[in-house]
Design a protein that fits this description.
Layout: H1 3-20, H2 27-34, H3 38-44, H4 48-58, H5 66-69, H6 75-97, H7 104-116, H8 123-137, H9 147-167, H10 176-190
Length: 191
């Protein structure tokens, strides 16, 4: 499949997933939105989960590569940026992903499929933890720093504030920069 066809599929999938939610975004709807047959989708993607992963990575943005951040700027500054990226990521993805929780069987299917692909909701925590572990490794953070606890605190807080924004019908979290700074400060003091 050509790159332009793949791009059309991802554009269509983004629209369908944002308007219908993940549970109702069928490959048939995505194909129709892209102007292709379902068979054409399966030439580039194994299944809807693979399309979803590509939409997340290529259309909705994610987190900076933690390996690129280690040793760069101040640790606090990097964590604030990562926390802002988390907030933005969760605001963009919550409306897509939340719909699967309406069906226990759908949750099971997605859990199994995403686990098989090495993906899932724990991925952001692992990214932030990997960054912190890198900073510990080069000595910019104390050896006794609890990287997992800091990562979990930041990801959980970012998720909750994104949920609040989505629930309130907002396109983003108000005072996002200030919130990220406060969360990082509190997480580093707590750990």
């Amino acid at each position: 499949m050509s790159d332009s066809n793949r791009e059309r599929i991802l554009d269509a999938a983004t629209v369908v997933m944002q308007t219908s939610g993940l549970a109702h975004a069928t490959t048939k709807l995505i194909a129709k939105e892209a102007g292709f047959s379902e068979a054409m989708l399966y030439r580039s993607f194994a299944d809807k989960q693979e399309i979803y992963i590509a939409v997340l990575k290529e259309r909705l943005g994610g987190l900076e590569d933690p390996d690129d951040l280690v040793g760069r700027r101040d640790v606090d500054e990097n964590l604030v940026d990562l926390t802002r990226q988390l907030i933005q990521f969760y605001v963009r993805t919550f409306p897509l992903s939340a719909s699967i929780f309406g069906s226990p069987s759908l949750v099971v299917a997605w859990r199994e499929g995403m686990t098989e692909k090495g993906r899932g909701p724990r991925s952001p925590v692992k990214v932030v933890e990997r960054y912190l572990d890198g900073e510990i490794e080069i000595g910019r953070l104390d050896r006794d720093t609890d990287a997992f606890a800091i990562a979990a605190l930041l990801c959980g807080s970012a998720f909750q504030h994104a949920f609040f924004a989505c629930f309130d019908g907002l396109a983003g979290v108000p005072a996002e920069q200030k919130l990220a700074e406060r969360l990082v400060s509190a997480a580093l003091r707590a750990a």
